[in-house]
Amino acid sequence: MRAGPAAGRPGRTFIADVTAPTVRRNGFDAFRRAWDAQMRERFPLPLLDVEETGDFRINVQAVTAHDVVIAKVGVEAFAGRTTGAGDGDDRVLIHLMRQGSWHFTRPDGRDRPITASAGSFIARRNNPSSSFDVDAGAVADVLILPTSSLAPLISARPILGSARSAEVRLLTAHARMVVETVRDLTPAGVRSARDALLELARGALRGEFDDAEPLLAPALARAAMRLADDRLTDPGLGPSALARELHVSVRTMHRAFATVGESVAGYVRRRRLERARLDLAAPHGRPTVSDVAARWHFADSSHFIRAFKRLYGQTPGQFVAGITDAGSCGTLGHICRSSTCGSGTPAEGR
Predict the structure, then answer these.
(1) What percent helix, strand, coil does the chain show, rounded to 5?
(2) What does DSSP assign to residue 164?
(3) Do residues 139 and 112 make contact, with C-beta atoms less than 8 angstroms apart?
(4) Residue 74: beta bridge partners?
(5) Digit-coded pLDDT (tens) for 80-130
């Protein structure tokens, strides 16, 4: 088992990997020791009984922001039963399933089993107790949140929903942004990130959020960027389409992008140019400039050439010629080792 050290407050990091065969029979004990050493002061681990097999093999990477935890959990074997709040305090847990399924049942049999599968989320309180079984290979982002902020929205019955809704997309985008930046944030920045996370969690549970709340603008921009990246070949991609998908006004979308210093159209154009450049660098079956311009929805070849040169300082033709002169070695980022290139440096950089 390996565990990483905690970072300075108010943000912390936590890493624990108990997937090795050597810890198969005492994986949970090893995990609890790591958690207690790094996190117990602020986040007592909820009470848990592992199934009779004792087979507890998970990998956890987590960060904290004051009183919330954002964790990526990968599962090889995980089954057991929570035993209520106890010394773990009463908290709300939101499981955002990336792959596989997480199955929950009430030990008293009062409710039907609930399964959160890939592309869905489940929000639940860790009290009352519940039994669970997780598919091998499952991956989830798990948010551990203070009940005081969310109690009016969630009772003893879990909430199950789609992780593809606009509100959950915003929550997911912000959570991942916090993970990426929390180590570099000031205490005030961590507090703001935490407040925005809780507001977005409330929006996810309500099925709506306050699109005029300035704290949420960076999360909205990040969610829109992720959505745009998946739809770059869509000729209708633009501010209106993104705003419609995320249930906000076009004006709100523009305000959100203003917080990251780039317009919606500018972001889409830049990402399309990046993809176009990859096409032009293809080692085999390289398309023509006009084909690339059409594929990535530039008005014509001249428009594409001008935009390409503004971003990269050379025309598409010059870029392709540079690759050809270097030996036609391959794609962007490829380390050229042929005798014609000699230097062993990335072909695109010469």
Answers:
(1) 45, 20, 35
(2) T
(3) no
(4) 59, 139
(5) 777 655 544 678 889 999 999 999 887 655 667 889 999 999 998 877 677
Kind and range of the H or E element at 173?
A: helix 166-181
Q: How far is CA 12 from CA 18, 63, 72, 200, 211, in A?
A: 20, 5, 14, 21, 29
pTM above 0.85, yes or no: no
Buried b (16+ CB within 10 A) or exposed e, 44-53: bbbbbebeee
How would CATH label the architecture of 285-349? Orthogonal Bundle (1.10)
Provide, rounded to the nearest whole percent, the portion of the chain with pLDDT above 70: 78
> Left, alpha or beta for 234 (phi > 0: left; psi -120 to 50: alpha)?
beta
pLDDT band at 347 (very low <50, low <70, confident <90, very high): very low
Asked whether the bond before 218 is cis by omega within 30 degrees of 0, the reply is no
Domain pair 2-162 / 285-349, same fold: no
Identify the bridge partners of residue 95 per DSSP, sorted by sequence position: 122, 142
Closest CA to 203 of 185, 216, 186, 194: 216
What does the alpha-carbon distance between residue 31 and residue 74 come to, in Å, rounded to a whole number? 13
Provide the sign of the torsion angle of the four alpha carbons 272, 223, 239, 189, taken in this order: negative
2-162 belongs to which CATH class? Answer: mainly beta
Q: Is the Cα torsion angle 127, 128, 133, 134 positive or negative in sign?
A: negative
Query: Domains of the chain: which residue ranges?
Result: 2-162, 173-262, 285-349
φ, ψ of residue 97 to 5 degrees: the values are -80, 120
Q: How far apart are CA 246 and CA 221, in angstroms?
A: 10
3-class secondary-structure state, position 342:
coil
Overall average pLDDT of the 151-171 stretch: 83
Peptide bond into 128 cis (omega under 30): yes
Strand partners, 2: 17
Nearest to 146 by CA among 212, 195, 99, 73: 195
Give kind and range of the element (H or E) at residue 270: helix 264-280
Q: What is the mean pLDDT of residues 274-279?
A: 95
